[in-house]
Amino acid sequence: MKINTHKTFLINIILVTGILVSGISFAQPGIMKIGFDIDDTVLYSRYVFQDAPRDKNNHLDFGWVNSRDRELSIPIAPTITLVRYFHLNGHEVYFITARSGENGHFVAEYLSDVVGFDVKEGINLFFSPKEKIDGNKFTTKHKVMKYLDLDMYYGDSDSDIMAAIKADVYPIRIVRHHSSVKQYSSNYFGNTLLKDKSIKTPFNSHDLKLFYDANVGMFGESIYPILWDGPEEDKVERSKIPTDVGD
Ligand SMILES: [Mg+2]
After folding, report:
1. 226 alpha carbon to ligand 1 midpoint, in Å?
2. Ligand 1 center to 24 CA (angstroms)
3. What is the pLDDT of residues 167-187, one digit of tens each?
4. Exposure b/e, 119-128, CB count within 10 A at least 16 = b
């Protein structure tokens, strides 16, 4: 009887120790992994896409797009402040864009200068273009988010939020500048610019204000209320560009 009690005690010790050791080995440090979209989140790149050449099938020349940010894009100051805040406090910052990756090193170099730390393709910058399924374009960013095991993701478009939700990453919507809502409305709360609501596009600009006031988006995501005046050129009427860009 005494031997059995001793044996049970030893087994319990081994079990508890095993649980503790495995607990320690799986313990996560408190470092956050935070992802950011690029277009209309970190960079106001409307003029890049507006001027970008297209081939005969209307496909954007991303080699051209990715080499023009230094010349045509404007850093969105409140988001840059946020990026620097996370980085300087020891957290990991990643950039995931739906742009195609041709000439991606130009984006890396420009972002490095803007945020003040090294940005490198495949390390903390990822190009993750949408894929077409049955005629609809869908995000692929969730695959990168899962690979990186992100904690949070900041983005302006519906597909950013969908990707984060699919990847079990906390989604935060950056309030898009009003001129970009105009330009890329079809990927912002469905499409808030159509005069008449439909089953496919059930929200209008009035609803958008309700969402903003409630600090919640159409997927239940948080709204990050950055207040950014935008460029001076915004006051000048620019020509309409297609709505398949700006993610
Ligand atoms: Mg975007």
Report:
1. 14
2. 38
3. 999 999 999 988 888 888 889
4. beeeebbbbb
Q: Which helix (H) or strand (E) holds 10?
A: helix 2-25
Residues (pLDDT < 50) of the chain are: 19-21, 23, 235-244
- Count of C-beta atoms within a 10 Å radius of residue 102: 14
Which position has the token pair 């935070």? Answer: 34
Residue 157 CA, ligand 1 centroid: distance in Å: 5
Alpha carbon of 197 to ligand 1 centroid (Å): 24
Residue 39 C-alpha to ligand 1 middle, in angstroms? 4
How far is residue 118 from each of residues 31, 69, 88, measured CA to CA in Å? Answer: 18, 17, 13
Q: How many angstroms separate the alpha carbon of residue 2 from the centre of ligand 1?
A: 69
Domains of the chain: 32-235 (3.40.50.1000)
The rounded distance, in Å, linking the Cα atoms of 150 and 146 is 7
Residue 101 has what pLDDT? 97
The alpha carbon of 29 and the centre of ligand 1 are apart by a number of angstroms equal to 30
User: Residue 108: what are its φ and ψ, rounded to 5°?
Assistant: -60, -45
How close is the Cα of 40 to the center of ligand 1, in Å? 5
